[in-house]
Amino acid sequence: MPGLARREQPLTVHHLNQLLLVCSLVLLVAVAAVRISSRSGLPSLLVYLGIGIAMGQDGVGNVHFSNAELTQVIGYAALVVILAEGGLGTKWKEIKPALPAATSLALVGIAVSVGVTAAAAHYLIGLEWRQALIIGAVVSSTDAAAVFSVLRKVPLPARVTGILEAESGFNDAPVVILVVAFCTAGPVEHWYVLLGEITLELAIGAAVGLAVGWLGSWGLRHVALPASGLYPIAVMAIAVTAYAAGALAHGSGFLAVYLAAMMLGNAKLPHWPATRGFAEGLGWIAQIGMFVLLGLLVTPHEMGDDIMPALVIGLVLTMVARPLSVVVSLLPFRIPWQEQTLLSWAGLRGAVPIILATIPMVSGIAESRRIFNIVFVLVVAYTLIQGPTLPWLARKLRLGESEGAADLGIESAPLERLRGHLLSVAIPKGSRMHGVEVAELRMPSGAAVTLVVRDGTSFVPLPTTVLRRGDELLVVATDPVRDAAERRLRAVGQGGKLAGWLGLAGNGAGPHSRHSGQ
């Protein structure tokens, strides 16, 4: 490792103890910093970058680190975990209507953004066309970690959230292909050759991701593992398999892992809350490690001459390139101008552009260090502006939505010998299941509420038992009606006693259904 050559020595137990102490302290500081970032509205990436800079050679830690290749490898690995966590949390029913618009924004929008930003870097800053195109491609990708962390705190319309989440999951793939192509020695390929390569790699990645996701979800639903803790491990292993298989097949591994994780996340797997929590924890670790390492790679005292070029390019990207890419790519979809304005402002950048900026450094491109510095300053400066102002803009555009009925937390454990499932249902504060009698749940035949846990006390409910907020229900359902039982519970959680009349009946029946099983 070039940047750590003077410290190359065998790893002893003493060194391991020191490393564990430093890493654990960094994690604790980073975890504590999440509270600060959540109150201020800033994406946590800025805090983590600050920790890395403070530890670096210009900070109090005085750690000298300049290994761009190692940073790129670890960044790719962290991005795989982040995309997997984002895919697991993406609800298909929310992004399905937004999928065509998000795909157009991730492909057509990228092309427009790269062209406009590269032209600004060439004509306004004076960079050569290769360097300008590299910067244009690097900063055109929205960051999945930044988008996921910010959007889930801002109540936006489902279509806007779906477009932004899907775009951030899709656009990494074409951008990586463009950056690698622009960094390849020799003349840049013709645009139609690049278009063909991008299309082929995306197709291969999508096919691999969907295949691995379907096979993985089918296997986990039909094989009862001996311990609940094995399910989260298996889910993450399947997602990483999709990335590796897609990349080795010369496709887009990033698209493959996102699609595979999304299929797993919508497959109603056993012990899902535990799996979701495990993936979220891994996602936080990946973000912290990646941002801290990127902060270490930065040398602040070398950035003085690159601040103004970064601000100029960022201004063009934010005020011209991104809005133009949104307008052009969404023309066929008749999206209101308010939503287009918010989509333009919500194109958050984060670790992905900084990681991609290490590719020209590894490839030995001229002015690669300057490219990295410009990208770093641009990301930090405009994240400071865009992140905190996004909720304010949503309110001004009257796009903020009030919170609806809280969704139920349902965890399923397979009962292999009984060919059934034990559903653990937590009734949250905002659920409309509050005040509903057990008999009014109208569970399908083959499913029954067997136990209620309330205030630490469990009891067998009667048909007239009234459910309350904070209750936890244990529902036994046979295998054929497991999905219908879960749909019915979620329907009552959203519509209360009138779920059937509101068209929310879990078995798919209309409001006037009188099915005997309910």
Structural write-up:
The chain has 518 residues and is an alpha+beta fold. Helix content is 60%, strand content 6%. It contains 19 helices and 5 strands. The protein has a 5-stranded antiparallel beta sheet with strand order 1-2-5-3-4. It starts with 12 loop residues before the first helix and ends in a 23-residue tail after the last helix.
Give a topology summary:
Layout: H1 13-40, H2 44-55, H3 68-88, H4 92-95, H5 99-123, H6 129-138, H7 144-151, H8 158-170, H9 172-183, H10 191-222, H11 230-248, H12 253-265, H13 272-297, H14 307-329, H15 337-345, H16 351-356, H17 358-363, H18 368-396, E1 409-415, E2 420-426, E3 447-454, E4 457-459, E5 472-478, H19 482-495
Antiparallel strand pairs: 1-2, 2-5, 3-4, 3-5
Short description:
This protein has helices spanning 13-40, 44-55, 68-88, 92-95, 99-123, 129-138, 144-151, 158-170, 172-183, 191-222, 230-248, 253-265, 272-297, 307-329, 337-345, 351-356, 358-363, 368-396, 482-495, and strands spanning 409-415, 420-426, 447-454, 457-459, 472-478. It is an alpha+beta fold and 518 residues long.
Strand order of the largest sheet: 1-2-5-3-4
Helix content: 55-70%
Q: SSE order, as H and E?
A: HHHHHHHHHHHHHHHHHHEEEEEH
Average pLDDT confidence is 81
Supply the helix-strand structural class.
Answer: alpha+beta
How does the overall form come out from the CA principal axes? globular
Total strands: the figure is 5
Largest sheet: 5 strands, antiparallel
* Sequence stretches where pLDDT stays below 50 over 5 or more residues: 1-7, 507-518
